[in-house]
Structures are given as C-alpha cells and as structure tokens.
Amino acid sequence: MAASTPSPRDTGFPAEGRCSYYVEKKKRFCRMVVAAGKRFCGEHAGAAEEENTRKRILCPLDPKHTVYEDQLAKHLKKCNSREKPKPDFFIQDINAGLKDETEIPEQLVPISSLSEEQLENLIKKLRKASEGLNSTLKDDIRSHPALLDALNDPRNGDSAIKHLKQQASILGNIEKLKLLGPRRCFVEFGAGKGKLSHWVDIALKDAEKVHFILVEKVTTRFKVDGKHRKENSVFERLQIDIQHLCLSKIPVLREGKLPVVGIGKHLCGVATGVTGDTMWAKSISGLSALELWNSTISSE
Question: Which domain of life is it from (predicted)?
C-alpha cells in the first residue's frame, strides 16, 4: 500500500503554493494562496524580508484584517465592511418593539447586582405575573424521508447527524402543519449556510413556484444555496439584521403576493421574538402569512 502524503504539520513546511506564515493560535500554516514568487500572502506579507519596506495597518472599517498603509484610500472604496446603500426593505429598528421614552438607562441594573431580598421580590413578581399562563412546551420530534439517506450515511459524524436530525424534525413539523407545498415563499431567518432551506427544497421535489429568502446578518462562507439550479425554485439571500427587516417591502413578496412560511433553526431567544414581530408585521400589511414555526430542539 502506498504511503499517504504527509500533511504540512508532519513536514513542518506549508503546503505547496500556500503562505509560509505559521499561525500560532491555530497551530498551523496559513492556507491562503500566494502570488508567483512570493512566500507570504497579502495578509502576512509584512513577515517577509522583501516586504518590510511597506507598512501594513489595521483596516479602520474592520480591524480583523490589514491593508498596506499606502493603499488605504483605494482599499476603503472596495472594502467589504464599507457602508453600503440601504435597500428598500431596510427600515431602522422596525422590529425592535416600542421604545419607552420615559425609560432612563441609568435605572437599568444587572440582576447580579441585586441583593438577596430584591431578588426574592423579583421572583415573586414574576411568578405572580405568570400565574395562569400555559407555558409548558412539548417536544414534537419528527422526521422526514427527504433526509433518510443523509441520516444513514456512515460518512456523517455525530455533529452532522445531530444537525440532520434537527432539520428532519423541522421538516416533519412543517409538513404536519400543511405548510410544505408549492406556490409559496419560505423565509429562513438566521440562515447561516442555508442548509434548512436546502432540505426544504429537496423535500418539495418539483413543486411549482417556490421562492426561498435566506436572511442572515453576516457574510457566510460555504453557502449551499448557490448550488441549486431548479427551474421551479429560486434562492435569494439578504444580508440584514432581522431587527431592521420589513418583509412587505421585499420585491418578490410585494409583487408576487406569495404566501410566506417563516422557518429557522439557528435563532437565539431574542432573535426568535424579533422574527415573530417580523412575521406579524407582514401579516397585517396586506400580504398573506401562513405561519411561523421555530424548532424547539436544542442544538447543544
């Protein structure tokens, strides 16, 4: 049997054509591709003797990367972190809830600063306020045949299986609610790589006139929505915070009058509440909202 190719870590050298800068925090060499005749990528060029005459500084728009000082003006015009024109569906704090103008920020204190007596009084108030509320949540863990092959694929590790089970349960619940069908728009809040929409699309097979809107506030690598090429389904990604998203002003929803199904898997509690406000605001704006359903499965 032929010997396996040694990794850069085994040899103590970077891979061919890759940066020679050793990232101490990650215990490996930088994996960026270098220009012909160079040992370092642009980010780590300051480590090369031949580049010492040019100074690299932190980008003022995003200190997570650096830029040559003599090219700063040019860089600021094309930096991905620069201020961009806001689209029509961006409305500042539209889903942030009503602001109490009488609230004085100085009066807000962390719970950890309360005395034992104050904490006990707070608990009593919360218990009294919640009396009579049916706040018991029931898990309804389901599955869906669209993910059967992936769930049985031995190449998937424990982490992948965990997420696949969650996605299968979400699809099963969407189907139970009779929301998995043609001629509608699925809005995935906190989309990340877009895998939940991916599986919804697989489950729908050749359903007609299906539109996916993936909402994510940060730039995401390794997105899967760009790989879909079906004639009957369209994927659109919006980089925006849910807090500022006005669904009724998104062109495809304003013009196509599509019923909307809100889905999400990567949402924290606050984002879930804001998403509910977003869907509610859309439902009263003259557009049809079917239902918002969020996974109650823990991602831990």
Answer: Eukaryota
Q: Is the pLDDT at 19 greater than 80, yes or no?
A: yes
Which amino acid, one-letter code, is at 184? R
User: How far is residue 122's CA from residue 244's CA, in Å, rounded to a whole number?
Assistant: 32
pLDDT digits over 138-149, tens only?
888 999 999 999
User: What does the block give as tokens for 179?
Assistant: 């929301």
At 8 the pLDDT is 46
Chain centroid, CA 75 distance in Å: 27
pTM above the 0.70 mark? no
Would you state the pLDDT for residue 99? 61
User: In whole angstroms, how large is the CA radius of gyration of the chain?
Assistant: 25
Give the list of residues 6+ apart from residue 66 with CB closer than 8 angstroms, or none: 43, 46, 56, 57, 58, 59
- Give the helix ranges, DSSP H, for the chain: 8-11, 72-78, 116-129, 148-151, 158-176, 195-204, 251-256, 269-283
Burial 181-202, CB ≥16 within 10 A → b, else e:
eeebbbbbbbbbbbbbbbbbbe
* 156 φ, ψ (degrees, to nearest 5): -80, 130
